[in-house]
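Exercise 3.2. Students should predict the tertiary structure of the chain below and write it as structure tokens, then compare their answer with the key that follows.

Predict this chain's 3D structure.
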Amino acid sequence: MQKVFIIGFDGALASAITGVIDLFRLAGVTWARIHGEQPVPHFATRLLTRNGDPCKCINGITLLSDGSWEEQETDTADLVIVPTIGAPIDQVLGSNPDLIGWLGQFNSLNTSSAGQVRVASNCTGAFLLAQAGLLDNREATTHWGFSNDFRQRYPQVNLNPEKLVTVDGYVACAGGGMAWWDLGVHLIERHAGAQVARELTKAFVIDAGRNSQAPYSALQTRRYHSDPVILKLQDWLEEHYCDAVNLQSLAALSGLTTRSLMRRFKLATGDTPTGYLQAIRVEAARRNLENSRLPIEDITQLVGYEDVSSFSRLFRKQTGLAPGAYRSRFGR
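Answer key:
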């Protein structure tokens, strides 16, 4: 059986540990039991902490460990999984320098040629991988709500927070806090085959078709900069998003030339004024779809658009769902 190490630390999300253990332990087992067949387990899991001590998760539950990661060489595991950080990220990073150093050993292993994922993180667990240097110049994802913080800390990482699961070389990442089931199924398919993964999703009644965090994310207004002119313009856009707006009017409002406005807005927010305005309008449309029964045509006009089809294309591009499908999933 393949060996899977799950890393435990104080402040972790308990379900991202116990849920992953359940998935790997029961791959090839639950489906067989349902059909009266002989179980064929594929994975042996071990929950490892610094000294083999129990770890106290963010919900107050204490989990007993199976040993210490300090006593394990990284190449003795087929797969190492880092769970979600539930406690304040700075606190967990600051209290786990030894773990970060241990994870950093993967940088020296010749694992890229094997074509198999060897280390993975769920949600904010990506901060530990990035701190260890494992995500440098790699594609990664993390919880959409922490993506701005992640980009500031680790600009060398190719972060794609709209993705639910990323794989780059021997490193995999998953997005939101409960994306551990998406990550687990994906890794089980890679390590044990598609048939085992399909049977597991059926036995656990898991929707394995998710591939994006976009429908779940909320607008982050990107105010982590200190440009007062752009901050004032962001305030204005968030109050007047339903008005007719063009680049020339925004330049006049800001007192900048259009060229200077484009340059400073992009530098401050990472987006263009038009892109930022579109994001605000889509966010307003999402709120209306969630909380009202207004026709989509009316919502389109309320957020500053006239053509329903063009706005629906924009909405789908940013959220991954058509407006009607979004309402069906998230409406009251």
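Discussion points: Residues 273-291 form the longest helix (19 residues). DSSP finds 15 helices and eleven strands in the chain.
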